[in-house]
Structure formats: C-alpha cells, structure tokens
Amino acid sequence: MIWLIASLLLTGLVWYFFRTTRALPVLMFHKIDPKRQDSLTVSLPQFEQHLHWLKTHNYQTITLAELLTSVEQNRALPARSILITFDDAYVNNLLYALPVLERFSMKAVLFVPTAFVGLCNQWDGCTDPLLTADQLKQLMPTFEFGLHSHQHLNYKTLTVNEIRADLTQNLAAFETLQIPYVRAFAYPYGGRPNDPAIKRAMQELMQQSGIRLAFRIGNRLNRFPVGNRFELQRLDIRGTDSLGRFIRKVRIGKLI
User: Fold this and answer.
1) Please, are residues 210 and 181 in contact by the beta-carbon 8 Å criterion?
2) Which cell locations does it reside in (predicted)?
C-alpha cells in the first residue's frame, strides 16, 4: 500500500512538472521605474531580479512568430519558453526595460494604443509620457510590436461596429507610422464582450483583418494545443508582487 501511494505521488509530480514546464507563461508588464512601484509599475531592481531569475532557471524568450507557428501546428513550444509583453508604450520602457532586456539577451513584445503615440496615457490621467514613433523604432530589434486598440478602449463595452472602427484605425495607424508590427492583439484592460454573439463576431472580424493571435489577461499558463487563439492568457506582473509571488505566477499561473 505504501509503495502504491508513493508511486501515485511520484506519477503526479512527474505529470505536474511536465504539465507546467511545457505550458507557456506570457508575462504582462506596463511601466518600469527606478524607484516607484505599484500595481502597474515594477521597479527597476525588481525587473532586473525577475529577468535574472528567468535566466538562471533556463527560461528562453520567444517571439510572436514562434508562438504563431506553434499554435498553427498544434504543437507545444520547447520547455521553459516564455513570452514577455508590455502594454501601452511608456517612455520608461525605452529608458529602463530595454537596457535590462539587452543585458540578459531577452526579447519582448510591446502592444501599442496608436492614437496616443508621442502623447500620454490619457485613459489614466496623463500621468506618464508615451513613446514617439522615433522612440518606438529605437526599441527594435529587442522589441516587436503588436496591436492594443487605437483609442485604448475596453472592448467589453463596445458594439461590433465600434470594435470594427477602432480596429481599422489601429491597423491603419501602424501603416502610417511605418513601424513593422505583428498582427497580434492585446485587449485593453483584458476586456472582451460578455455577449457570446458579439464576442464571436469580434473574433471573426479579427480573423478577417488578418489578426492571428489575441491576448486577454486570465492569469493562467497557456497549454497546447491552444483551444482559442483569440483567448490567449497573460500573467499580470505587478510591482506589489514579491519575488516569490512572481515565481509562483510563472510556474503555476493564477494564485488562489
């Protein structure tokens, strides 16, 4: 009986290890600041600590192209793959995140709300400046760019026609800015329509617009094969998280 219990425990541990190391964590950051930290702002020392831990534990950053190939071929990525993403295109991403990513030889994705390029985060009281088109280009090739709506609107509250209009502007703005981008979308606030019919129409619209992937929040790891490429989940990384909490998020996803 003891042997049977030990065997079952070992099998469970092996299954759990395989399940978590073969799943993809997608990290969601916003701001990096040398001193400040809050729910949307990770301090520079914290960010350095995060990447150092990932590096010493053999995590490898992937690109959106690598993720797309994996999704379309219904195959898992190599163990300990990770995708690092940033939302909103704050100037501090260039000043502080980029040098740390370069030091650790890691890649990242920046999701851009294109109406506010070179302005400020008007949806949050204009507390922080946002990158200009020239500054965005300085992030390459460490960063690649994706869509984050045009007006930083919460798609949860919009009609299909409103989503269509905003998405069309988001795509057109990238062409006007002449910045290379990947047709991957991150929902502002993680919001998607509650009404199943509207959500389905939105996803069809995205597909027709050439968008290949879309990210919510969800705070869970992404397992393969992916059930819905327009519902990929990200882990909300906060400045209020301890290193231990960050590690648990990366390893197992949503915390109870």
Assistant:
1) no
2) Secreted
Cα gap 68→204, rounded to integer Å: 18
Minimal CA–CA distance to 227: which of 203, 198, 197, 194? 203
* Tokens 């502007």 -> residue: 169
CATH number of 24-252: 3.20.20.370
In a 10 Å sphere around its CB, with 0-12 CB exposed, 13-18 middle and 19+ buried, how is residue 56 labelled? Answer: exposed
Q: How far apart are CA 127 and CA 80, in angstroms?
A: 36
What are the pLDDT digits (tens) for 30-66? Answer: 999 998 999 999 999 999 999 999 999 999 999 999 9
- The whole-angstrom separation of Cα 83 and Cα 255 is 19
Q: Tell me how far apart the alpha carbons of residues 188 and 111 are, in angstroms, rounded to a whole number.
A: 9
Res 256 pLDDT > 70: no
Q: Which residues contact 77 (CB under 8 A, 6 or more apart)?
A: 22, 24, 62, 66, 67, 70, 224
Q: Is the pLDDT of residue 247 over 60?
A: yes
How far apart are alpha carbons 11 and 49 in whole angstroms?
33
Q: Is the pLDDT of residue 243 over 70?
A: yes
Euclidean distance between CA atoms 106 and 23, whole angstroms: 19
pLDDT in tens, 134-145: 999 999 999 999
Beta bridge partners of 84: 27
